[in-house]
Amino acid sequence: MQESLILVDEFGNRTGTAGRGDCHLGQGVRHRAFVTFLSDSAGRLLIQKRQGSKLGGGRWDVSATSHVRSNETFAAAIRRCLSHELGIADGLVPRYLLSYTYLEQLDGRAENEYCSLFVLSYDGPVVANPEELESYRWVSVSELLDWYRSDSVGFTLWFGEAFERMVRYPLQELSDG
To answer: Where does the chain cross the membrane (predicted)?
Structure first.
């Protein structure tokens, strides 16, 4: 059975639901999604290299990203994604930073999303799901900024959209302290 995703307007207001496949055909239909960055106590961010077979695969990406299903809250969707992709079943509390729209054409499909950006503090173990990612790294914000700006093609476009917005926040906004 196909996932049912939440359709939204340009302000993120729910307008209906549609199947995941339908949301990504042609120009796509705007739907609710999220991107997350995990930050450890040293101020580093976790990034993952997407599995080559995935949309945007073979490139570096945010800590975790997915869609919000029609029967989920953002918090439930983030927990589901962190558990599935990174083996993190902790009761983490996501901190909302901002939302934005995002559109990218990808080989006859499209990501047409209303993305909400969250950060989470985490210092525990990571158990990477090899079906979802090839590898992961913890990287300081300044190192990641230099790396991204010197090699943006090595990153997913949605990583850049989220990361460029996130780094505008003071670092204390990215931690619980």
So the answer is: none
